[in-house]
Amino acid sequence: MAISQPLLHNLANVLPQGPAISVLSIGSGTGLLESLLIESLDDSYDICGVEVSPKVNKYLPEQDMFFVGGTWDLCPQAGKSHVWVFTYPREPKLIVQYLELHDHANLSKIIWLGPKMDWQDYEGVFASSRFSHLTVLEDCGAATYETVVVAEPRQARRAYMCSKHENAPDAGDATLIMPIIDHIMLAWLLCFVNNSRGCSLHFWTVLSRFAKDWFAVMTPMETDSMQRYPSALQHKELRDVWNHASFLVHIAYDLDWAVRQFELLERAAPNCLIKAILLLNIGIISCLVAEYRSAETAFQKVLPLHPFLAPLAHYLLGVVRFELADYEQAQISFKLCAYILKQTDHNRPYHHLGLDFTLSYRLVAENEEIAAYEWTLKQKGRYGFRLLNRMPALLVFSSTVLNDKVELCCDRTTRLQTPRSAVSSSVFSTPSDSVLSTAKTFDSPASGPALDLGTHTSPVIPWRPFKKPMVPRAAQAETSNLRSLAHFLKYTGPEASQATRATEVVNTPEIAFPAIGHASIPTRRTGSVRQALLQVSEQADMSSLLRKASTLTLKKTSSIRQMTKTVFNTPIDQLGAVNVDQSRGIERGRVIRFLVEPIQQFAGTNTRIKKPTEIAFFSYDSEHKLKPLDNESLKYYYPPFFNIPGHHDNRFPVDLSKGYDSFRQRDDSGDEHLDGLLDTLVETEKRNGKKIEVDLVTWRGMMTRILTAPYEMEDGFEMNATCFQGTIYIEENHAYKAAAREAQKARFSRSRGPPQDMAMYWGYKFETLSLLNKPWGETTREEIEGREDEVVDNYAQYCSICRTEIGGASMVIGGEVDGVLGYKPDDPQAPARWVELKTSKQPEHERDRWVLDKKLLKFWAQSFLLNVPKIIIGFRSRDGKLLNIEELSTQQIPSKIQQQGTYKWNGNICINFTGQFLDFLKQTIVGDGVWRIRREAKSTAIEVFKVEETGTGNILTQNFIDHRNKLLAGEIATALKDRGTA
């Protein structure tokens, strides 16, 4: 656990107050965190630790420690403690057992500290217990890969809030969740209504105005209790963000870009509820652009985030799966929705508002016929109307925010009897005359005057579901005043550094800047927030920011996608005074930024690429000595033996941990720069008698970082670059690499998985089991069958050096290849059948599959850059047993991910991004000096800036510099000689 003063302060604040509060830390380890907490608290707190071995504890007094017989033994003291703290627990079952045996009335809180990636495994444990009110502490002082969650009994939490704020409504989460759900439902409905060209111009205009007025409405809970009910503040902030993002959907009409904006908002969500709401929007808008697989993934992510949203998520999953013709899974989703509402209290928030939430889920897939399935929200009252009763029932949702005395009814007799691929116009149609005749007026006395829908009619046109809205130009002109919210403004506060303080403006046609008021959104200053989220500090004057922004001369663009290419950042005091070169990125002082987000700006084009061709190679021998243009360390792939019929001495599965004690591990902590690559290029040029002319020279690892940058936001990177004789040379920044490696070791040491050294050894062991030192025909049977007993080492390596082109940038890339299938051809133009060997944990559930699909992005990028056609993955168990082997075609991985992947990524976007970024580097890194290429973790931009004004640093070897200078002198002498002869 990364311990910091802010973390201690936040933990102290969440502990309950009282005369004698006992805290039990289960898995206290050295006791450092607990001892520091004791120092920061008064004597009313009694903090004790629980461990297996007394040798582990170093900081807690002996009288404050309890010891158990093993990792699964329970400490009886838990039955007397007011607070439990679980720090990096090993298994969710341990918490389950503690709750089953030692839960008691005085237990008020459970604090969970651990890696973010593990929280999914534990959230269900708390959600199914009485400690289902979960609060994720953001920016609490923990490391970026860690999270702190406070679990409290829901009733106790509500009583605590009401006792603290006497006039606060005792409504639990109902009054918070329902308005947000209504936002989503009505917005989706309006999207579909706008989609129908059968709607009259007047009707569309009124609906847009209605949407704008509706978004401005505040519920009584928000107006009366905003200052007294702190948790409502988060939802007010969400509503402000939602207002802007909604207008991007309804007014800007670029749903692809809007999906990406919601994804950025979701990454920066301050808690699970807001994250779930944003995921719902991602799924809904994905449906509108017919990205049903993406929608399915988004709705699945909602399920574990908040119990009250689980019925809605199951319902939407059913809708999407029906669109995908997966009728069996759709049936299951609808049944789960109905079952949850019937068997649990998840319907309670809807009943609290007087709503009746019912669901019909009968499907008859064989005949392509379904009974109408709908979400019916009904409330009794004086006012009522029927809305769009001819529209398919799944589109009819209700809003209780406009008026708490509104009755919305769905036609439960609607039947869809035609195949989804060929929708009948008689069923899927939205006749405006019918709409206007059944809903002449939106009767909303509580929120303002009624909105007259008029009597205009238009011909019936078949309604096409899930298509991008098609809005007449005249309608756009009449609603130009609504475009004012199709932009984002951000100010991070006066304390922000010059590198992070900026205003980001999206160029929109004829923008008018309204006084939209002050909003404070406390979120981390990460790149994704800077790119997507409206941020205004509490000290900032919103109206003054808008006045400054309105002085900009905005250029007309045709779509949001084009707008994103003209986004620029500048300090607020320099607004309007920056000169942006589109091809070079965004210049801010000496720092030039290349925007990675939104990644959809790199879609839709095909960057020219040239197949990598090997121009040189080298080996590191068994002592790791460089041997240029030598095949000594070349290995040959032959699959490992295990579970062979008739061979009883072969064990299955194979233990990848065998031989770990004799592992010859090379110390790679030194900085090797580009030495091996450059020395081999020198020998190659001497042998060929000519210089290799390219734009860029680097290791494969650097290019992999760049190629995967659109989707790899969690980890940052730093590289050093220099330009020498017109060629850019890029290496990894060794100091950053060393720091990242230490952080990774610390993360591994606290995780539930294997130690990092052991996990790394498993990979080398799999290579030893799968490779031969000579071609198969020259290898004896004893050598093949004895590979399991060989001593594993990582000294010897074979590296291939290839020339390739991506876009307008030619490059030389060097990287290690594990082995070759069969033999290496003598003709350098003939492609070698290289293989890339990887190990990964055998997927056991959906989360493991997601992790593997994310790994496949890196696997594909590494192999793509060196033209490695085959990737061989050895799947292992948690304890390092080799279970099975799978061979993948590098070329087919991107399409496989698009069709079946749970973690979606697009190889074409990666290639297009790389082509544009390399062009940007070619124009940026020029002249003498050393440059830094940096991307901070979760940042939406890559920064390039100079760190040394002269020289090349240690990137280039003196031998390489002398060699190239000699070649240059020879070229000059030859040119002068030819000129003199002429």
TrEMBL record:
Residues 610-960 form the RAI1-like domain. SUPFAM superfamilies: TPR-like. It comes from the Eukaryota. GO terms for biological process: NAD-cap decapping; nuclear-transcribed mRNA catabolic process. Its cofactor is a divalent metal cation. One of its GO terms (cellular component) is cytosol. Pfam families: RAI1. It catalyses: a 5'-end (N(7)-methyl 5'-triphosphoguanosine)-ribonucleoside-ribonucleotide in mRNA + H2O = a (N(7)-methyl 5'-triphosphoguanosine)-nucleoside + a 5'-end phospho-ribonucleoside in mRNA + H(+); a 5'-end NAD(+)-phospho-ribonucleoside in mRNA + H2O = a 5'-end phospho-ribonucleoside in mRNA + NAD(+) + H(+); a 5'-end triphospho-ribonucleoside in mRNA + H2O = a 5'-end phospho-ribonucleoside in mRNA + diphosphate + H(+). GO terms for molecular function: mRNA 5'-diphosphatase activity. Belongs to the DXO/Dom3Z family. Decapping enzyme for NAD-capped RNAs: specifically hydrolyzes the nicotinamide adenine dinucleotide (NAD) cap from a subset of RNAs by removing the entire NAD moiety from the 5'-end of an NAD-capped RNA. The NAD-cap is present at the 5'-end of some RNAs and snoRNAs. In contrast to the canonical 5'-end N7 methylguanosine (m7G) cap, the NAD cap promotes mRNA decay. Also acts as a non-canonical decapping enzyme that removes the entire cap structure of m7G capped or incompletely capped RNAs. This is Decapping nuclease RAI1.
